[in-house]
Amino acid sequence: DQQVKQNSPSLSVQEGRISILNCDYTNSMFDYFLWYKKYPAEGPTFLISISSIKDKNEDGRFTVFLNKSAKHLSLHIVPSQPGDSAVYFCAATPGGADGLTFGKGTHLIIQP
Amino acid sequence: EPEVTQTPSHQVTQMGQEVILRCVPISNHLYFYWYRQILGQKVEFLVSFYNNEISEKSEIFDDQFSVERPDGSNFTLKIRSTKLEDSAMYFCASKGEAHSGPTDTQYFGPGTRLTVL
Predict the structure, then answer these.
(1) How many whole angstroms separate alpha carbon A63 and alpha carbon B82?
(2) Of chain B residues 35-94, which have a CB less than 8 A from chain A?
(3) Paired residues of B54 in beta bridges
(4) Collapsing DSSP states into helix, strand and coil, what is residue B107?
């Protein structure tokens, strides 16, 4: 039962272009959505998040969009840089003490 | 910048042995979590801990697992009798207040790689 889905296992983008990573969810109880970046053998690093009362949150090169009716969110990175190459995980939670439910991740490769 | 720390970075144990994984959460945080990631799979929630008791646990967190906050700084995960399938990266995470600001953000440690032989 995949409550959070990232359907693209990998994505290749040229340096300087926009990277768009997608995530879908099924649980209507989720109130907070987070994106984490992860390198092999390291812990997830928090990038950006959004609560269900908003439809957009921006932080520097990173923007997260939330479409509640479609149960879909996306992470935009612009411009993409070589250091952005990593696995990106979408996660969601109802909040409070509840744990995060993660997607399977998308491996982003930025090509020079 | 405050961060979550975990020790050891790598633990090798024999099947059936007990292991204790240690975490020091960010100092003013109130919520503590354990997750695991089996090689090639997604990060999975194990347990959350608040106000000195378990708040939520997943199906994975069965009787062989336990958590403890023995003092004001450490948060531990004990696996009583390890199995081969317990081999994974184990991540600790912490969070401030409930619904901390607009983001409800959990911050993760670097992980402990557990290998069960």
Answers:
(1) 42
(2) 35, 41-48, 50, 55-56, 58, 89, 91, 93
(3) B49
(4) strand
Using CB atoms, which residue from B47, B55, B105 is nearest to A34?
B105
Number of Cβ within 10 Å of residue A14's Cβ equals 12
Q: Show the 3-state SS of B65-81.
A: EEEECCCCCCEEEEECC
Tell if the CB–CB gap between A97 and B56 is shorter than 8 Å: yes
3-state secondary structure B23-57: EECCCCCCEEEEEEECCCCCCEEEEEEECCEEEEE
Is the separation of the CB atoms in B22 and B114 below 8 Å?
A: no
Local structure of B61: helix, strand or coil? coil
Give, in order, the Cα–Cα distances in Å from A27 to each of A70, A73, B31: 12, 13, 22
Q: How many residues does chain A have?
A: 112
φ, ψ at B30 (rounded to 5°): -115, -20
Task: Judge whether A54 is closer than 8 Å to chain B, CB to CB.
Answer: yes
A67-108 tens-digit pLDDT: 999 999 999 999 999 999 999 999 999 988 889 999 999 999
What are B40-76's pLDDT values in tens digits?
889 999 999 998 999 999 999 999 999 999 887 899 9
Residues 6 or more apart whose Cβ sits within 8 Å of residue B15 = B82, B83, B84, B116, B117
Q: What residues of B are in contact with residue A31 (Cβ under 8 Å)?
A: 104
Chain A residue nearest residue B114, CA to CA: A41
Pairing of strands A32-38, A86-93: antiparallel
